[in-house]
Amino acid sequence: MKSELIGEYLDSLFPNPRCELLYNSDYELLIAVVLSAQSTDKRVNTVTPIIFSKYSNLEKLKDAPLEDLESIIRPVGSFRKKAFYVKEIARRVYLEHNGIVPKDRDILMTFPGVGRKTINVFLSEYYNEAAIAVDTHVERISKRLGLAYLKDDVLKVEEKLQKKFPKNLWGKRHLQMVLFGRYYCKAIKPLCKDCKLKNICREKKKNFD
Q: 194 catalytic, yes or no?
């Protein structure tokens, strides 16, 4: 099966994949994932240590001056919106959830800046809950390798990947696909020459014909 071939190759490249976002607590991870929207983990990792050292707990973070957060967050883009998200997430976790980020998906969906992808990343990474988060890397690879149709939206891609891979491997496959997309199957100039999946990839015609 195609999914088994893909899984074997991903296992050979990334036998023990890890999330590249830096964090030390549940709220730090959630905020880091929110900040990573339309940005990169590398860039987020330059600003979160500053935020979480200057405002070392939820109580301090919820009261942080918005202008200061905007200044710190500026390198990741959309800094005004994201600064508001950071303050509001800190406020709600501190005041409404006893300082613990809830595991309930419906509650998390009400947090500003938090959508389905963010929730899947958070629950998979922090609570080891079976989930596949479809970011730009996962979507691109799924469509290139024929795991999904080009016309599929992210929810349809997620549903198809859930059917292709065993549930106990969802989190691992997500991380592997993110890393594969980040370092090998890149949006621009993918490293196709030595890829063992090139024979099943839609990019093959562009790069080798």
A: no
